[in-house]
Specification:
Blueprint (H helix, E strand, L loop, with lengths): L2 H35 L2 H21 L3 H10 L2 H29 L15 H24 L2 H24 L5 H22 L2 H4 L6 H35 L2 H37 L3 H28 L1 H8 L8 H26 L4 H51 L7 H20 L4 H14 L1 H14 L8
Helix pairs in contact: 1-6, 1-10, 1-17, 2-4, 2-5, 3-4, 3-5, 3-10, 4-5, 5-7, 6-7, 9-14, 10-13, 10-14, 11-13, 11-15, 11-16, 12-13, 13-14
Length: about 475
């Protein structure tokens, strides 16, 4: 595979990861102040307003946000004909959802939030602005402008915190001021995005009715997939609440915090991976595409398996350090959720590769099956094993997802998975099981386990180092 592709991946991932980390940091900092300067009722209104606007956004995206990344990344021909129909379809979908919402919004249960609809105007504005902000972020992603992507994220997040702190300092902070800040920040994001996107070039191509049909044909399965995933997330929480006590739900929620934070960081790689793999398939360079998928699987699995073993060895200490002693029982579910994180990210690599190759219906089929398995197993496992059962249900769902994608990759001749990958997973399972069964507490034995695993992954770690050296244009013969 061309070192230029690796360099683009590295630079893009570095930019998006930096943007994600800083944005998350600014977000948590703002929540710190909001929780202290808003009343519980106001904070509840704030959360509900954004939940509703984000829900409307989900229903209005039509799967266009993923398809536009693929089409723009594929080259100049698609770039010139895809943005105009995407904007028109997005506008029509937004208008339809808005009309539907205005007719039926009062049917939404508002027990305890009787004054919610007095903020209806702000919900609508946030929905419209947020909808197009997300779409324009995808355009920037497809163009490979990851530095600009990151700069916009960081600058707007930093400005948001600055505005909140300034209002607090001058004793002018209140709920409405916060909503005005949010609207202003999203508007600024869109303006910065418009400056980063060469609209004159992207809109100059002529489009026909066939382009609209093709776009909807490709996007519709992706849209259905989004709705299936969203439904599972909501029902999954309902099942936990139905069968678990409040303390059990809290323990399970704690076990998801570290994997969720890591998922946010790992998603930065997908932002860069997807347009690059789409470009390779569009060029007909299937060999380089296969190499990119293999390297992505190898690197992500190697780093995550080492991290999983580290967490397995020191799970109690990690839970106590980041949370508290009362959540020590979250240690085992945390390990299980880390395995789930590994399989989820490998499935993301496979899933986005399949979409990049032009098969947009497959993720919908895969996730529909996985959701059914996830829901059924959640009911059975939670009843028998409490919060640990909830973690096992999430793991089983991701196992099913992973093997389905593996099957489709083999069927479509996109990639043949190296047997060494499976052997490494088996070794990790053996090490982790041994640690949990025999309760390894001695620090010397813990370090011995970790060193032995690092030795077994020596070649893979060397390959990662070599790739970094290639990116940095260092010369070397052997390591």
């Amino acid at each position: 595979m061309d070192s230029k592709i690796l360099k683009n991946l590295f630079k893009g991932t570095l930019a998006t990861t930096t943007g994600t980390i800083f944005t998350m940091g600014f977000h948590f900092l703002s929540i710190f102040f909001l929780a202290r300067y808003l009343s519980q009722i106001e904070f509840g209104y704030y959360a509900l307003i954004f939940s509703i606007s984000n829900l409307l956004n989900l229903f209005s995206n039509l799967g266009l946000e993923i398809s536009i990344v693929k089409n723009i990344a594929e080259g100049s021909k698609n770039r010139e004909i895809v943005l105009k129909p995407t904007l028109i379809l997005k506008s029509l979908a937004t208008l339809f959802i808005l009309i539907f919402y205005m007719i039926f919004y009062k049917l939404y249960p508002t027990d305890g939030f009787e004054g919610l609809w007095s903020y209806n105007f702000y919900i609508i504005v946030l929905f419209i602005l947020g909808s197009f902000r997300d779409l324009f972020y995808r355009v920037i992603q497809g163009l490979g402008k990851f530095k600009q992507y990151s700069i916009i994220q960081i600058s707007t997040a930093a400005l948001r915190v600055t505005l909140i702190l300034t209002a607090i300092y001058f004793d002018q902070f209140n709920f409405l001021i916060l909503i005005y800040f949010e609207i202003s920040i999203i508007t600024l994001s869109i303006l910065l995005q418009l400056l980063s996107v060469p609209f004159r070039d992207l809109l100059k191509g002529s489009t026909s009715l066939a382009e609209y049909k093709n776009l909807l044909k490709f996007s519709s399965p992706l849209y259905a997939n989004n709705l299936i995933t969203f439904t599972y997330d909501r029902i999954g929480v309902f099942i936990l609440g139905l069968f678990l006590t409040a303390s059990s739900v809290a323990i399970f929620d704690i076990s998801t915090k570290i994997p969720s934070a890591l998922q946010g960081i790992l998603s930065s790689y997908i932002l860069v991976f997807f347009p690059n793999i789409s470009s390779l398939f569009a060029l007909g360079d299937n060999k380089s595409a296969e190499q990119l998928i293999n390297k992505s699987v190898s690197y992500i699995s190697t780093l995550l398996t080492i991290l999983i073993l580290t967490i397995a060895l020191w799970n109690k200490e990690i839970v106590i350090l980041f949370f508290s002693t009362k959540y020590q029982s979250a240690g085992v579910p945390l390990i299980i959720m880390m395995f789930s994180l590994l399989l989820r990210n490998l499935s993301n690599i496979f899933g986005y590769s399949i979409v990049a190759a032009g098969y947009s219906k497959i993720p919908m089929k895969v996730n529909f099956t996985s959701v059914i398995v996830g829901l059924a197993s959640a009911i059975v496992f939670v009843i028998h094993w409490n919060f640990t059962g909830a973690a096992f249900a999430a793991l089983l769902m991701n196992v099913v997802t992973f093997f389905q994608y593996s099957y489709y990759h083999k069927k479509l001749n996109l990639i043949s998975i190296d047997i060494a990958f499976y052997s490494n997973i088996i070794i990790l399972i053996f090490f982790t099981s041994t640690i949990l069964i025999f309760g390894v507490e001695n620090v010397f034995y813990k370090l011995l386990f970790l060193i032995l695993f690092l030795i077994l992954n020596y070649k893979k770690l060397i390959n990662i180092v070599r790739s970094i050296l290639i990116i940095k244009n260092f010369s070397y013969k052997k390591l």
